[in-house]
Amino acid sequence: MSFRPSIKSVLSNIRPIAPLIYAATQGLVADLWTVEAHAGARGQHIARDPRFVIVLGSEPSPLSLHDTPGEEAQTVRAVYIPGSVPITSQIAGPTKFEHLDLHFNARYLASCLTEMGEPSHLLDQPVYLPEDSGVLAIAETLAEDIRRGTAGTVLLDCLALGIVAKMLASRTIAQSDEPLRGGLTQDQLTQVDRLMRTEMHRRLPVSEMAERAGLSESWFAHAYRKTRGETPHRALQAIRVDTAQRLLEENRYSIADVAVMVGFADQAHLTRAFRTVTGETPGQWRRKSISETDRTISDSFSQDSVG
Question: Which of 14, 199, 259, 288 lies 20 to 30 A from 138 at CA?
């Protein structure tokens, strides 16, 4: 397993009462917790990676969350939390319950969303679902396979991505296809994003992106910047760097080969763009990712308790 999630939790009046059970693929770790909470149970959590949490069982969910200081906590059955977003939890104890956590590699999740034909910016904001029978049904099925040890790679990916699709569906439906004044529609953005990702390995002129959106080149450049807050060229560069990061983590290709594979002229061109986006060189990124992979899996699930 190459992807290892990292989460820091400070807990009060809550503790696991059964060993952690988990299953994993290259870009996903699914872990199943059974916990006991007492009166006043609470926690503070922050994870490097995006994650989904689903409270299992037929009883009302005891879990309430909020991600903004001073905000009233919302009772949730399922929640999506973007990477690096701090979350405060409260639990109506005393109680015992199970929850399924899906930790995704951010680039893998964004890539899966693109393959679904959905824009990756859907992942930018948390999603809170008070109840959702469809999400719960899939989560219960996945949890049972994890308990039995039958959650193979294909099954794990399919069920986990089914939860992703269900949880983001309400946000997708709610988004209007009407563009911002002077901007692009959601369908135009999706078409252009797909073009950038599938054709990043070659020179991709703005005129070709404009043609895919059905607009003139000058109007497309204006509309794209109006909608996304950046130029098409900068967006394409970010996609290329994002893909380069994944290839560097695999440690199978030289930096020069990666540069060509993602559409840069040479290694020097990749290095300049990479440093602009990440603040590091490709070599520094690769060394850091290899160092993180060498950590033991137990570190991924470590939690500190207080109280």
Answer: 14
* Separation of alpha carbons 292 and 270, rounded Å: 23
**Residue from 240, 226, 227 nearest 282 by CA:** 240
**Cβ–Cβ under 8 Å, residues 263 and 233:** no
CB contact at 8 A, 90 and 41: yes
DSSP 75: E
- Non-local (6+) Cβ contacts of 17 within 8 A are 34, 35, 36, 96
pLDDT in tens, 126-169: 888 998 898 999 999 999 999 999 888 888 999 999 999 888 87
CATH topology for the 7-174 domain: Jelly Rolls (2.60.120)
Count CB neighbours of 152 within 10 A. 12
Task: Provide the 8-state DSSP code for 184.
Answer: -
